[in-house]
């Protein structure tokens, strides 16, 4: 009898391990959909992984990163990029005020980086519409998503056009991604994407309250 139970235990364990091995990690698109990012931004979820690293720290589809570690501009890479195409890299908070999902209020986004006309992933040679600013979650606003999108352009954007808004100063918040994409010639969906989360640091909460900044 003991031998029978032992054999059954081995079979159950083998079955569990086999299922665990077959269990796939969530795809980029699934992660974007599950987080509600695609709905808030009104975009098609990216299918490809955009590699984003803040020094040794890598963005991994929703991992939490301390705001102090994202002060400097990250490095990005995308293995499937077309070397002859132009791309746009943007970093945004799709729900800057962090309204509840069932809120009737609109979701104004905030842009933290907007680099256009990128070729061969050369960010330094890109045209900068909004220079990189490290994500800063507001005190008392809970957890925020910070979304990196890498979007293929259908042509080069004329950054000297007088009709182009001042995203560096006036248009960082609110930023309307849908409107921006419609004004320029972009592919229907982002070529790649990634995102992480961050909250106002607990170690700064007391200082914030004492200084009267957390009203």
List the helices and strands and how they pair.
Elements: H1 2-22, H2 28-35, H3 37-41, E1 51-54, E2 57-58, E3 63-64, E4 75-77, E5 87-93, E6 110-118, E7 127-130, E8 144-152, H4 177-183, E9 192-198, H5 202-210
Parallel strand pairs: 3-9
Antiparallel strand pairs: 1-2, 1-4, 5-6, 5-8, 6-7, 8-9
CATH superfamily label: PEBP-like
Number of folding domains?
Answer: 1
Mean pLDDT: 83
Strand order of the largest sheet: 3-9-8-5-6-7
- What overall geometry do the principal axes of the alpha carbons give? globular
Name of the CATH class: Alpha Beta
Residue windows where pLDDT falls under 50 for at least 5 positions: 1-23
**How many alpha or pi helices?**
5
Q: Kindly name the structural category.
A: alpha+beta
Q: Indicate the CATH topology.
A: Phosphatidylethanolamine-binding Protein
Element-level helix/strand string: HHHEEEEEEEEHEH
User: What level of helicity do the residues show?
Assistant: 10-25%
How can the largest sheet be summarized? 6 strands, mixed
Q: Which architecture name does CATH use? A: Alpha-Beta Complex
> What percent of residues are in strands?
15-25%
Query: What is the CA-CA span between the terminal residues?
Result: 69 Å
Q: Can you describe what's shown?
A:
Helices cover 23% and strands 22% of the residues. It is an alpha+beta fold and 215 residues long. The protein has a single domain, classed as PEBP-like (Phosphatidylethanolamine-binding Protein, Alpha-Beta Complex). The N terminus is likely disordered.
């Amino acid at each position: 009898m003991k031998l029978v139970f032992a054999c059954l235990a081995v079979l159950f364990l083998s079955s569990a391990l086999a299922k665990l091995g077959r269990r796939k990690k969530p795809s980029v698109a699934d992660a974007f959909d599950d987080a509600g990012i695609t709905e808030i931004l009104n975009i098609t979820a990216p299918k490809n992984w955009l590699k984003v690293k803040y020094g040794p720290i890598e963005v991994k589809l929703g991992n939490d990163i301390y705001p102090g570690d994202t002060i400097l501009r990250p490095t990005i890479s995308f293995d499937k990029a077309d070397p002859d195409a132009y791309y746009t890299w943007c970093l945004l908070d799709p729900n800057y005020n962090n309204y509840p999902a069932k809120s009737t209020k609109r979701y104004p986004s905030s842009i933290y980086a907007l680099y256009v006309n990128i070729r061969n992933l050369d960010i330094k040679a890109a045209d900068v519409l909004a220079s990189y600013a490290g994500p800063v979650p507001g005190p008392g606003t809970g957890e925020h998503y910070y979304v990196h999108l890498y979007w293929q352009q259908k042509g080069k954007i004329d950054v000297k056009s007088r009709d182009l808004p001042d995203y560096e100063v006036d248009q960082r918040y609110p930023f309307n991604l849908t409107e921006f994409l419609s004004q320029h010639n972009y592919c229907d969906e982002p070529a790649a994407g990634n995102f992480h989360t961050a909250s106002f640091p607990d170690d700064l909460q007391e200082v914030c309250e004492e200084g009267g900044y957390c009203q």
